[in-house]
DNA sequence: AATACGGACAACCGCATCCCG
DNA sequence: ACGGGATGCGGTTGTCCGTAT
């Protein structure tokens, strides 16, 4: 027997969300919280698949999302984490507060991949592309690009070999995705915390998301936790309900800001429900 | 001015994993 | 321990918009 479809595909709307739909979804989650996504569309009066509602919320409507391009620092973290984790975007996103896996994935595919390729680095393996042409060797420590690649500062050897940088995609058959996916290697990548200072720092200090404040906004409202002033749930989301047009500039400031870390804070534990 | 093209990003699809009875 | 439903995740596609011709 086959798997049941997540929803009746004939009766659900697809394609871009309208402002009205966004409002309905926001209103519903404001009053009921995140629970049972399958039931959300029905209860919220939406002709959408529950999955679609979840994606819309997590990728676009969540009040803690940062908008706009990733900063250079964020890009650097993405590159470092990708070198270690492969295409495990959700793991990477978990360490970038206010960023979603989808956003990071898109940014990787449209920006970072190109940058790395241009620099002569295979984005899939994080190795220099100017390897001896005939021999395909297993990755060695010496071939690995230092994780703290500065995108604007090409290594000297990379510059000289840039003309060879055109076949990176084709050479990426042994991608970190394959290496990291599944049980066979996923844990090993986690355990394999080598001497990369940045990565060690990230792993040691942020095994949980950088800051993982609770969904329990009403209780936390007005309090200062770790130098973060918690706004009420209503305060956090009021701006959303006022929006007819969710322009990028409207999202510029996160609803929480960590004074010490100088970044917006992920208020949501995505796995948590209330 | 019209059309083609390409980049960026939102959204969908299907499989994997988790969780609970 | 097992089965089935719910959710999460990553890959892929679709759509919009800016730029080039």
UniProtKB/TrEMBL annotation:
GO terms for cellular component: nucleus. Residues 9-61, 62-112 form the Myb-like domain. Pfam families: Myb_DNA-binding (PF00249). Residues 153-164 have a biased composition (Basic and acidic residues). Residues 123-196 are annotated as: Disordered. It is found in: Nucleus. The keyword Repeat applies. Residues 9-61, 62-116 form the HTH myb-type domain. GO terms for molecular function: transcription cis-regulatory region binding. This is Uncharacterized protein.
């Amino acid at each position: 027997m086959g798997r049941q479809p997540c929803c009746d595909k004939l009766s659900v709307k697809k394609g871009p969300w309208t402002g009205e739909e966004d409002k309905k979804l926001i209103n519903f989650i404001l009053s009921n919280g995140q629970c049972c996504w399958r039931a959300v569309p029905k209860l919220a009066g939406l002709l959408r698949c529950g999955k679609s509602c979840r994606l819309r919320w997590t990728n676009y409507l969540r009040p803690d999302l940062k908008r706009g391009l990733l900063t250079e620092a964020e890009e650097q973290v993405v590159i470092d984490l990708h070198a270690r984790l492969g295409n495990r975007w959700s793991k990477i996103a978990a360490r970038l507060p206010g960023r979603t896996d989808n956003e990071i994935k898109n940014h990787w595919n449209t920006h970072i991949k190109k940058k790395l390729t241009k620099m002569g680095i295979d984005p899939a393996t994080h190795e220099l592309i100017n390897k001896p042409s005939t021999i395909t060797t297993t990755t060695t420590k010496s071939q690995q690009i230092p994780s703290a690649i500065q995108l604007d500062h090409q290594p000297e050897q990379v510059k000289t070999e840039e003309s060879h940088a055109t076949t990176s995609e084709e050479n990426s058959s042994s991608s970190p995705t394959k290496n990291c996916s599944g049980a066979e290697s996923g844990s090993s990548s986690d355990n394999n915390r080598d001497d990369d200072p940045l990565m060690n720092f990230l792993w040691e200090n942020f095994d949980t998301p950088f800051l993982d404040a609770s969904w329990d906004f009403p209780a936390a409202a007005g309090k200062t936790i770790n130098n973060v002033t918690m706004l009420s749930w209503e305060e956090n989301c009021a701006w959303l309900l006022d929006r007819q047009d969710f322009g990028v500039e409207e999202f510029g400031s996160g609803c929480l800001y960590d004074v010490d870390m100088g970044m917006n804070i992920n208020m949501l534990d995505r796995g948590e429900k209330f």
